[in-house]
Amino acid sequence: MADRIDYGNLMHAAMRGLIRQVLSKVAAEGLPGEHHFFITFDTNAEDVDIADWLRDRYPDEMTVVLQHWFDNLEVDEDGFAVTLNFGDSPEPLYIPFDAIRTFVDPSVEFGLRFETQESQADDDENESAENQHRPEADEDAEAQTSGEAEVVSLDKFRK
What we know:
Blueprint: H1 7-29, E1 37-42, H2 52-57, E2 61-66, E3 70-75, E4 79-85, E5 90-96, E6 100-105, E7 110-113, H3 117-126, E8 136-137, H4 139-145, E9 150-153
């Protein structure tokens, strides 16, 4: 048994579960009102399935938008599949929840940012213990929304 509770990973799992629930509802009922999503993901993460030309164009990360046109949204326990339009060319994608770096719904100023363990190890060396227990807004994700969305960075909870 571990000598401490890993709140950071537990929170990440809970937040990915929230994304799963939201996308499942959208798959069943469509996007309500003005809701839309900016989803940034690691194109090199395990089980990401995108066209080779997209991986060549976005070798590290890619942001997709679920708003006006998307098709075949299917959500499973590990991720979601969707067909998006790239220059009048429909492309199917599969994005595991573990590959998601940010999830933003600018219509309601909501966003989540997930950090990797490597980033957290560097942060832990540079921060005091009291600062590791407070969520912080992420300016990069806020800039994507062109609004005043508050993005909570959960990486501060990890050790």
